[in-house]
């Protein structure tokens, strides 16, 4: 999910939207068809200003309620899944047990996992490299550590050293430098 | 006290000596000139990948090669052509049309070693290098940015301070000191024809076309149903535009005839582009006659400059030409000019 102006996240995630336009955020979520979300505020002033509006603004102190709601949602999903499984006649009891065990372990994981804060998430997301670093990535790395060069005969041509110094001096002066 | 001072002096690091370098990175040749040697080193920008089972390393005395992991062996430089004929293989060319070849990205490591070998040891020295880059081609879309960055990275890897300089401007630095670096330089290389118009050392216009030596070889080969390598070999051995060509072989004569037509077409094309670009893009009034300097490997055959004079004399030029001359050494002029530029820059740093 990529909310404009915020770092991209993989849902479900807690995102710090302090300083963002709440109407824009809700409009974006609506546009994306995201309906299962909560906007939580610790600031009583902000809370009151959003109490009337449709998105539910809840205090973060009621963490227990959030977990309860999540748990209920998960329960209903498991029920749906079990109903689906029973339709399949070819599954034996061992297979169903295995699947149930899997679901149980996933549920436990979800319940014990602390939801990640935006700051934690931002730390996890790799820092955007600078342009110079991007340039380095774009060009293949040069690794000559495992290569060994044996130099053979090379063509050499004698150069005119006197002309070189005079020309370099003249160019140096023409480029606006003083001797 | 005196003893202490002496000790401190001993601890102080000796200032590193500065070496200036000019590196010409051409499609066909790599060429390096250093301020601390009296020679310009040159090698073919080609290599041939062989398996080390194909050839014994002991057989490769006097031959430059790179040994890699997993029995890889790369014959580099001119000898790559000879071995390519023996093993019936095509040589790899790290560059194409004046720029680093997209087909030979893996060759950058080999190219790094070739450049390191060509430049020589810079350990314990503060090395400054100007390397050549072509101007953006007006008849082909490929950007020079990648090429420029790859060579910057190679030089950085070798511990050398670097800056890129336009290839044709390097010819101006090398050949136009007596005109205070005013003139038009055309470098007819293998991959590109590079052109720069300079006024007192300042670049007024620079552009390139993707037609030059390789274009001549490819068009001649296509016209006569031959392999381009064979055409290149005949061109380098027999091509001249003046005097008698004593060739009895009829096929070779046909190749030389076709080569003549394509050389003429190349000059015609380049001159037209110079006139067009000058008319459209040069704002400065060049009130004095300026020289045209012709350089690059494609300009080496005897009589090339006469052919150039002949073609250009049929055109109305938007500038006055004082003389048309060839670079003192068309193969090393760019490296020489780049060295002059580096030496001038280093003077500014002192």
Task: Describe what you observe in this structure.
The complex is a heterodimer of chains A (179) and B (350). Chain A has a two-stranded parallel ribbon. In chain A, 51% of the residues lie in helices and 6% in strands. In chain A, β1, α2 (44-50) and β2 (57-58) form a beta-alpha-beta unit. Chain A has seven helices and four strands, in the order αβαβααααββα. Chain A is mainly alpha-helical and 179 residues long. Chain A is elongated and about 90 Å long. Chain A has a domain at 63-112. Chain A has helices at 22-31, 44-50, 63-87, 93-112, 118-124, 131-138, 161-174; strands at 39-40, 57-58, 148-150, 155-158. Chain B is of the alpha/beta class. Chain B has a domain at 123-350: 2-Layer Sandwich (Nucleotidyltransferase, domain 5). Helix content of chain B is 38%, strand content 25%. In chain B, β1 (17-25) and β2 form a beta hairpin. In chain B, α3 (108-119) packs across α4 (145-157). Chain B is globular, with a radius of gyration of 22 Å. The two termini of chain B are 33 Å apart. Chains A and B meet through α6, β3, β4 and α7 of A and β3, β5, α3, α4 and α10 of B. β3 of chain A pairs antiparallel with β5 (65-67) of chain B, so a sheet runs across the interface.
Distance between the termini of chain A: 62 Å
**What fold name stands as the CATH topology of the domain at 123-350 in chain B?**
Nucleotidyltransferase, domain 5
Report the sheet-strand fraction of chain B.
15-25%
Structural class of chain A: mainly alpha
Shape of chain A: elongated
Low-confidence stretches of chain B: none
What does the largest sheet of chain A look like? Answer: 2 strands, parallel
Helical content band of chain B = 25-40%
Mean pLDDT across residues of chain A = 69
CATH superfamily of the domain at 123-350 in chain B: ATPase, nucleotide binding domain
Distance between the termini of chain B: 33 Å
Q: Assembly type of the shown chains?
A: heterodimer
What is the CATH level 1 assignment of the domain at 123-350 in chain B? Alpha Beta
The number of distinct β-strands of chain A equals: 4
Query: Most extensive chain contact?
Result: A-B, 37 and 58 residues
Q: Which percent band covers the strand fraction of chain A? A: 5-15%
Overall mean pLDDT of chain B: 87
Q: Taking Cα atoms only, what radius of gyration of chain B do you get, to the nearest Å?
A: 22 Å
Coarse structural class of chain B: alpha/beta
By CATH, the architecture of the domain at 123-350 in chain B is named: 2-Layer Sandwich
């Amino acid at each position: 999910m990529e909310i404009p102006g915020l770092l991209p996240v993989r849902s479900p995630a807690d995102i710090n939207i302090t300083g963002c336009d709440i109407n824009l955020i809700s409009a974006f979520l609506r546009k994306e068809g995201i309906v299962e979300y909560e906007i939580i505020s610790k600031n009583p002033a902000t809370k009151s200003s959003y109490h009337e509006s449709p998105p539910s603004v809840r205090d973060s102190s009621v963490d227990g309620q959030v977990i309860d709601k999540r748990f209920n949602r998960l329960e209903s999903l498991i029920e749906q899944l079990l109903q689906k499984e029973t339709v399949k006649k070819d599954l034996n009891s061992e297979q169903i047990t295995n699947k149930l065990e899997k679901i149980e372990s996933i549920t436990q994981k979800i319940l014990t996992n602390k939801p990640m804060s935006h700051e934690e998430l931002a730390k996890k997301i790799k820092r955007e490299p600078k342009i110079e670093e991007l340039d380095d990535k774009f060009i293949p790395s040069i690794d000559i550590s495992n290569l060994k060069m044996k130099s053979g005969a090379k063509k050499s041509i004698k150069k005119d050293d006197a002309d070189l110094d005079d020309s370099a001096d003249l160019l140096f002066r023409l480029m606006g430098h003083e001797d | 006290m005196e003893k202490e001072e002496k000790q401190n002096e001993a601890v102080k690091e000796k200032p590193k000596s500065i070496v200036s370098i000019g590196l010409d990175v051409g499609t066909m040749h790599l060429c390096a000139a250093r301020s601390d040697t009296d020679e310009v080193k040159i090698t073919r920008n080609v290599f041939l990948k062989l398996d080390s089972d194909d050839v014994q390393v002991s057989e490769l005395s006097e031959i430059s090669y790179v040994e890699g992991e997993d029995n890889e062996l790369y014959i580099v430089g001119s000898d790559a052509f000879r071995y390519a004929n023996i093993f019936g293989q095509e040589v790899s060319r790290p560059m194409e049309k004046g720029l680093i070849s997209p087909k030979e990205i893996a060759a950058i490591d080999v190219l790094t070693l070739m450049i390191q070998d060509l430049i020589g040891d810079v350990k314990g020295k503060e090395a400054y290098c100007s390397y050549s880059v072509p101007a953006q081609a007006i008849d082909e879309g490929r950007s020079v940015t990648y090429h420029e960055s790859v060579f910057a990275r190679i030089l950085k890897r070798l511990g050398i301070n670097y800056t890129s300089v336009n290839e044709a401007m390097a010819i101006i630095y090398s050949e136009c000191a007596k005109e205070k670096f005013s003139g038009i330089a055309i470098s007819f290389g293998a991959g590109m024809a590079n052109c720069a118009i300079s006024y007192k050392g300042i670049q007024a216009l620079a552009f390139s076309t993707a037609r030059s030596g390789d274009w001549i070889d490819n068009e001649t080969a296509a016209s006569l149903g031959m392999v381009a390598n064979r055409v290149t070999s005949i061109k380098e051995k027999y091509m001249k535009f003046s005097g008698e060509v004593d060739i009895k072989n009829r096929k070779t004569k046909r190749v030389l005839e076709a080569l003549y037509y394509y050389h003429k077409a190349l000059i015609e094309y380049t001159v037209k582009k110079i006139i067009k670009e000058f008319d459209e893009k040069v704002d400065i009034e060049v009130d004095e006659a300026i020289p045209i300097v012709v350089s690059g490997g494609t300009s080496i055959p005897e009589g090339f400059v006469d052919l150039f004079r002949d073609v250009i004399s049929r055109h109305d030029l938007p500038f006055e030409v004082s003389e048309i001359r060839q670079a003192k050494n068309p193969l090393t002029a760019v490296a020489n000019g780049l060295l002059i530029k580096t030496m001038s820059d280093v003077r500014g740093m002192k």
